[in-house]
Amino acid sequence: MAETELTVKDLISDTKPTWCPGCGDFGVVRALQTALAELNIQPHDTAVISGIGCSSNLPHFMTPYGMHTIHGRLLPVAMGVKLANPELTVIGTGGDGDGYAIGAGHFAHACRRNVDMTYIVMNNQIYGLTTGQTSPTSGEGHTTKSTPGGNIEPPFNPIGVALAEGATFVARGFSGDPKHLQALVKRAIQHKGFALVDVFSPCVTFNKLNTFKWYKQTIYNVNEPPKDMDIEPHDPSDRARGFALSFPGQDRIGYGVFYEETGKLTYGEQDPTLHAGVNPVHDVKPRDVRALVEAMK
């Protein structure tokens, strides 16, 4: 029987978002819902895996399978889900603290392994859930609860790290540019291999520096740069230039597609077990687990 055609409404759960009014994460969840609807990827064919943080609540607000894991560990879980059931569209969602601090090691290895999944990071350059401490992507000089004298550390460069570690799709979006973000997420999901979408997603409560207004004045589309910058549009096949553009310059920060490599074998395609045609999806029959739950209390 043919699948029914999806709409965005089909992907919205009954759980209402708990984000602060105006949070950039609203734009991210809508971009993901829109992309899945346009690709007609059914909820039962999708798994959204998250870590810990404001942004990691995202799976609760959607109808696909979802799993809220522990801090910084969403990528190992997501990779396991994909390898256990290669037919699923697997999407990881988290924040810059979750992904680029405690989860940084997993991030680097996920890039180099090229597991066929999409990783969306809501990068607000602050720890929002714990009420406003400096995160790995906070800028130098940023005054927060944890850096009252100003941040002395240079910010983590997720785009550069992803490129250096071998990710085959590396991009950045902005919650304040919804049409571009929706197209970017859709393209990432369609990509065969590990796809990073780092999203500038402003925290309107605890980050009064990196606001929607600040981003709109600071960022530019590397694929369609403004004429006043006098630079050539970036070709996503040029990995070296993508790496160079990942570093801020002249008070401007790039977003868009920095790199895309097609044709590279994914981890699943090279795994001896999966490559041999063995189906890892077992016929698990439903059973009553209440006795097990009671025994664990």
What does this structure look like?
Helix 1 packs across helix 6, helix 4 crosses helix 5 (158-165) and helix 5 runs antiparallel to helix 8 (239-245). The longest helix has 15 residues, at 25-39. The protein has a single domain (8-295), classed as Thiamin diphosphate (ThDP)-binding fold, Pyr/PP domains (Rossmann fold), CATH 3.40.50.970. The termini are far apart. With 297 residues, it is of the alpha/beta class. Helix content is 31%, strand content 16%. Helix 6 links the parallel strand 5 and strand 6. The model has no long low-confidence stretch (mean pLDDT 93). An 8-stranded mixed sheet has the order 2-1-3-4-6-5-8-7, sandwiched between helices. The chain has helices spanning 25-39, 74-84, 96-102, 104-113, 158-165, 178-190, 212-218, 239-245, 267-270, 272-275, 290-295, and strands spanning 46-50, 65-68, 89-95, 117-123, 169-174, 194-200, 219-221, 253-260. It is built from 11 helices and 8 strands.
Features:
297 residues, eight-stranded mixed beta sheet, Rossmann fold, alpha/beta
- Coarse shape: globular
User: Uncertain segments of ≥5 residues (pLDDT<50)?
Assistant: none
Summarize model confidence as the mean pLDDT: 93
Domain count, please report it.
Answer: 1
The CATH architecture designation is 3-Layer(aba) Sandwich
Largest sheet: 8 strands, mixed
- Percent of residues in β-strands: 15-25%
- Alpha-beta content class: alpha/beta
As laid out across the biggest beta sheet, the strand order is 2-1-3-4-6-5-8-7
Number of helices: 11
Q: CATH top level?
A: Alpha Beta
Give helix and strand order, one letter per element, not per position. Answer: HEEHEHHEHEHEHEHEHHH
Quaternary status = single chain
Q: What's the total number of strands?
A: 8
Q: Which percent range fits the helix content?
A: 25-40%
Cα distance spanning the termini:
43 Å
